[in-house]
Amino acid sequence: MSTTSNQDLTLKLQRTINASADELFDAWLNPDTLAAWFKPEPVLDCDDCQINPTETGIFRITLLNRDTGEHYIVTGHFIDLDEPNTLSFTWSWELPQNGIRDTICTVLFDPITTDPDQTVLTFIHTGFPDQDACDDHEQGWKGCLDSLAEHFSS
Questions:
Q1: What digits encode the pLDDT tens for the residues 98-150?
Q2: Which residues pair with 62 in a beta bridge?
Q3: For the ranges 18-27, 29-38, 45-54, 90-99, which has the lowest average pLDDT?
Q4: Which of the residues 35, 64, 74, 126 has an alpha carbon 20 to 30 A from that of 43?
Q5: Which position has the higher pLDDT, 143 or 8?
Q6: Is the dihedral of CA 136, 9, 145, 36 positive or negative?
Q7: The three-state (H, E, C) secondary structure of the chain, written as one string
């Protein structure tokens, strides 16, 4: 679901995942764990993942397309690390990827009070230059969040 607000294209996705908020928060910051579930598309594997999980710390994720051998690199820095409630970071693709630069991602972790081993994860990505870019990222983030949920279901 994509919505437009104040001429700023925003993507918002939500999943209920069988994991505590602490486990999910860590899954975004631990390079080995993130590499295991970060799959925007089935043909993409996380080939390298570097994360400095501090406020203003940077990250760099390299994805490998198994079919073409192409690499896609995304970088960013952390804006807010409020464990285990909120994670916010910039998102920029290195060229020759689509050139999306300095968009903002926010991940909210809301534990279900009746079951602390379940968490509602809300993912918000803002700052897209056009609807096509928003739609492309929607497909990728859906793949990632589905993979994250699957990671914790086994």
A1: 666 789 999 999 999 999 899 999 999 999 989 998 999 999 999 999 999 99
A2: 48, 73
A3: 90-99
A4: 126
A5: 143
A6: positive
A7: CEEEECCEEEEEEEEEECCCHHHHHHHHHCHHHHHHHCCCCCCEEEEEEEECCCCCCEEEEEEEECCCCCEEEEEEEEEEEECCCEEEEEEEECCCCCCCCCEEEEEEEEEECCEEEEEEEEEEEEEECCHHHHHHHHHHHHHHHHHHHHHHHC
State in words which class domain 2-153 has.
Answer: alpha beta
Burial class from Cβ neighbours inside 10 Å (0-12, 13-18, 19+) for residue 96 reads exposed
Closest to 72 in 3D by CA, of 54, 53, 45 = 45
List pLDDT tens digits, range 25-42.
Answer: 999 999 999 999 999 999
CA distances from 148 to 55, 83, 107, 111 (A): 23, 18, 13, 16
Contact 50, 38 (CB under 8 A): no
